[in-house]
Automatic annotation (TrEMBL):
Organism of this sequence: Herbiconiux aconitum
Name the record gives this protein: Cupin domain-containing protein
Domain Cupin type-2: 49-122
Length: 166
């Protein structure tokens, strides 16, 4: 991440693209705005802004040290997660909808639609992506980037040992 003079108020345009974020989500516009690198006395929170391009996706992952909230500003995305019993759920989320993901739960966000989706997100429990203990599960939980209308519960399940998060 760039070396920022720490302050308490930021505009997302002030935040440079981070190399690790670009690797995980190529082609996305994403800024980790409030982190321990940008704000003094912050040891538990991340706040960010993102635009997912049409037909893009952020693959299954978990944060071992943080819960996450996503709030959709415009457009639509599909937010997915894996329940403790291994059930895979996906929900179409449009403007005004918020999603909560508990710490350690497998989850993802994808945009199978033809328009971009803008949203904000926050991690609670860690002040950066790295300190959230991000675990990439792309190869373990394969998800197709297909449209969802409402809620989709998949027939296949994830192994409960992997799905366990409580």
């Amino acid at each position: 991440m760039a070396d920022y003079a720490k302050k308490n108020v930021w505009h997302f345009d002030e935040i440079e693209e981070d190399e690790e974020t670009a690797r995980l989500m190529p082609g996305f516009e994403i800024q980790y705005i409030i982190t321990d690198d940008t704000t003094d006395h912050n040891d538990k929170t991340v706040f960010g802004h993102c635009v997912f391009p049409p037909k893009s996706q952020h693959f299954p992952h978990r944060h071992l040290a943080a819960a996450e909230v996503v709030y959709v500003i415009s457009g639509r995305v599909v937010n997915g997660s894996v329940d403790e019993d291994g059930t895979i759920n996906e929900t179409e989320c449009s403007a005004g909808m918020a999603t909560y993901v508990p710490q350690r739960q497998i989850h993802w966000t994808r945009n199978p639609y033809d328009e971009p989706c803008e949203f904000v997100f926050a991690y609670y429990g860690a002040p950066s992506l790295e300190k959230s203990a991000y675990v990439d599960l792309t190869d373990v939980v394969p998800i197709e980037n297909v449209e969802v209308s409402g809620v989709l519960v998949h027939d296949e399940k994830v192994d409960t040992k992997l799905a366990h998060y409580l």
